[in-house]
Design brief:
- The complex is a heterodimer of chains A (114) and B (139).
- In chain A, 46% of the residues lie in helices and 31% in strands.
- Chain A is of the alpha/beta class.
- Chain A has one domain: 2-Layer Sandwich (Transcription Regulator spoIIAA), CATH 3.30.750.24.
- In chain A, strands 1, 2, 3, 4, 5 and 6 form a six-stranded mixed β-sheet that branches.
- With 139 residues, chain B is α+β, with helices and mostly antiparallel strands.
- Chain B has one domain: Heat Shock Protein 90, CATH 3.30.565.10.
- In chain B, 35% of the residues lie in helices and 26% in strands.
- Chain B contains four helices and five strands, in the order βααββααββ.
- Chain B has a five-stranded antiparallel β-sheet with strand order 1-2-3-5-4, covered by helices on one side.
- In chain B, α1 packs antiparallel against α2 and α2 packs across α4.
- The termini of chain B are close together.
- The mean pLDDT of chain B is 92.
- Chains A and B meet through α2 and α3 of A and α1, α2, α3 and α4 of B.
Chain lengths: 114, 139
């Protein structure tokens, strides 16, 4: 079960993930990102502080946007992951393909450097 | 000690599967980070089975066994009478290709193979048994 909250700050769309993302809920993550892009945001932060679990279905959603975001110059940075969630991204090396910051301030700095 | 659970093929049941595995491993002193990896691998195997072998039919059941014996590797068994899909025979696509093709799937089997030490298949009383083995020594 996942709750997704969105809020906007200085033209940046912040998508906060609360709960667990698995095969039954990854579609909601996909819809939230698609909605943000559809509304024209080109800077997206994903707040993972309250993300307790992510399965490969969720990793796949992030992965599927990498190429499109590169083409359209959309910047996305994830931040605030707990150790277990961070480890899940690292097992497959997705931490090398996605931008992952420690906290919001760090994520914003990373975004400005992209 | 053995732990058993029957699971209906509804992806809404994955949370229950994760809790079952987490609780069993926790009570045998497996470290948290390792538990989270094993939970991830089993979630993957079970969701594949529900979606691809049973088309998410909640009336079709399979069984999960966890065999935890002091000093031995941990064994997870997924016992099912559906079609077997031997992930050892599956060549996982290159990560770069998945990214390029904007695919959402294809990561799961790679995850399971990275996490588990051995994956084997057996036939037991006409049922397919997938055994996932991890060399950690529980209490």
């Amino acid at each position: 079960m996942i709750h997704i909250k969105r809020l906007q700050e200085d033209g940046v769309d912040i998508i906060a993930l609360i709960g667990e993302i698995d095969a039954s809920s990854s579609i909601e993550l996909d819809l939230a990102i698609a909605k943000s892009v559809g509304e024209g945001f080109s800077r997206i932060l994903v707040d993972c502080h309250s993300l307790e679990y992510i399965s490969s279905a969720g990793l796949g959603v992030f992965m599927s946007y990498i190429e499109e975001f590169k083409d359209q110059n959309i910047k996305m940075v994830l931040y605030g992951m707990n150790d277990k969630v961070a480890n899940t991204f690292e097992i497959l090396g997705l931490n090398e393909l996605l931008q992952i910051g420690k906290d919001k301030a760090h994520a914003k700095r990373m975004m400005n450097e992209l | 000690m053995n732990y058993k659970q029957k699971v209906g093929c509804n992806i809404e049941n994955l949370k229950g599967v994760r809790d079952f595995i987490r609780n069993a491993l926790k009570s045998h002193g497996v470290p948290d980070l390792q538990i989270s990896e094993l939970v991830l691998a089993l979630d993957e195997m079970c969701s594949n089975l529900m979606i691809h072998s049973h088309q998410c039919n909640p009336h079709e059941l399979f069984e999960i066994n966890i065999i935890l014996k002091k000093g031995d590797p941990v064994i997870f068994e997924i016992i099912d009478d559906g079609n077997t899909f031997d992930i050892n025979q599956f060549a996982e696509p290159d990560l770069g290709n998945l990214v390029h093709e904007k695919r959402k799937g294809g990561l799961g089997i790679r995850l399971v193979k990275s996490i588990m030490d051995k994956i084997e298949y057996q036939n037991r009383n006409g049922k397919n048994v997938c055994r996932l083995i991890k060399n950690i020594h529980c209490k």
